[in-house]
Amino acid sequence: MTRSRPGRALAAVLVLGVLAVGCSSDGAGTATPSASTPGRSQVVAIVASVDLYASAPQRVSVGLVTNDNELVSYGTVDFAFSYVGTAEQPQQPEAGPTATATFIPVFGTTGSGDAPRITLPSQGRGVYEATDVTFDRAGFWQVSVTADVKDAGTQEALATFEVGERPELPAPGDPAIQTENLTLDSKDVPQAAIDSRAATEGRVPDPELHGWTIAHAIRAGRPALVVFSTPVYCQSRFCGPVTNMVQDLAGRYPDRAVYVHVEIWKDFENQVLNQAAVDWLQMPSGDLTEPWLFLIGADGTIVDRWSSMWSEDEVAAALETLPAHG
After folding, report:
1. How much is the pLDDT for 285?
2. What confidence score (pLDDT) does residue 19 get?
């Protein structure tokens, strides 16, 4: 069993660490008393997307934070991407695609708004997401974000990220890995290896997500919605909310797919990872990224995938395209 701590690109660690107050299933945390109004230079953009690659339409998510660890939340912002070369051959920015990005709040967020504004983490955790962005080549890219922020005026921020020649993790069109992940029927494993929340709650809180293995779903010809997350030990701090989202979708669309939660850690104290998480999420570098969501079709092919944060409406729309299964 691999014994390495899950990780991700530094930019994603930063954005997800700042944007989320807590890693527990309810996402509770302590916020500062009030939000402030930043100056133009105080807003920072950090790319949250993981495993971006060339020549395919993808979602790109960016978090906007201030120097005071407050957030820019809600509404839409503009993305403008530029190619800046490779590590061996950097170049002046060359204009690429543009997009309008919509704010995606963490599942369970109670705040709301029609336009970007400064919020506390307790009011507006989330990222801005652009869809169908295609990068025409691998290398380093920049995203310039422009936001018309309420009471703060136009804010601009820039972030750099890497695009690969091809995905390093399973991607749409690939055959799903037929993994025998842990379930409630697994023998001789602690419940916390099935869902880390059992370590604090004394039981697996979402049994409906722990009845199937990915391999069983593929053999049975059933679509599967699979979330890889560690709600208690999450580095990204989105794991609890996104797992709750999948649990909610399981209740809303019980006949469209089987629903699977794969816990990242088999033994957190001794830093032992669950093999199913290693099989799906370990990068060639040895890092293991989380959380991820995969939609697998009835034929065993990956239909779609989401990294770090995602919209419940997007996933629901994908489920609604699947035939009902009696």
Report:
1. 92
2. 40
